[in-house]
Write a structure and sequence with these properties.
Layout: H1 3-14, E1 24-32, E2 37-41, H2 54-64, E3 70-79, H3 91-100, E4 106-111, E5 114-119, H4 120-123, H5 130-133
Parallel strand pairs: 3-4
Antiparallel strand pairs: 1-2, 1-3, 4-5
The protein binds tetrahydrodeoxyuridine (THU).
The site of tetrahydrodeoxyuridine has 15 residues, from β1 and α2.
């Protein structure tokens, strides 16, 4: 699985976004260390609060399937009637990434034609993790 292919899977997943309130559609594709890919889209709710981002949809699908080892995540989003573009993950999704991923976990942001890879450490420095609970 190349980075470009992972981005294309995120683009495809974005087509499934349920975003009648924001009209902002996001897709994500999560690559496990074993080479499997789990995809997600944002799923909104009339009560707003229950809305879940594309990134967490992908993570929760993967964890529910028994996965715990992750290599990379591709994300793109934007107005639903326009092509996907650079969409940095929200803070809640970064915290979920910090729960399951090492500092070197790669996050690909942009669109299939042009994207950049960031490390989780870059996007979530000084994060709160399980190690803090036992210190
Ligand atoms: N959203 C995501 O799915 N991922 C992000 O990284 C940012 C925001 C969704 C949540 C909501 O459905 C819509 O985009 C507008 O905030």
């Amino acid at each position: 699985m190349t980075d470009r292919e992972l981005m294309e899977k995120a683009q495809k997943a974005r087509e499934k976004a349920y975003c009648p309130y924001s009209s902002f559609a996001v897709g994500a594709a999560l690559l496990t260390k074993s080479g499997r890919v789990y995809t997600g889209c944002n799923i909104e709710n009339a009560a707003f609060g229950p809305t879940v981002c594309a990134e967490r949809t992908a993570f929760f699908a993967a964890v529910a399937a028994g996965e715990r080892e992750f290599a990379a995540l591709a994300v793109l989003g934007g107005p639903a009637d326009a092509p996907g573009r650079f969409t940095p993950p929200c803070g809640v999704c970064r915290q979920v990434m910090a729960e399951f991923c090492s500092p070197g976990f790669r996050i690909l942001l942009g669109c299939p034609e042009s994207f950049r890879s960031y490390s989780l450490e870059e996007l979530m420095p000084l994060s709160f993790g399980a190690d803090r609970l036992s210190e």
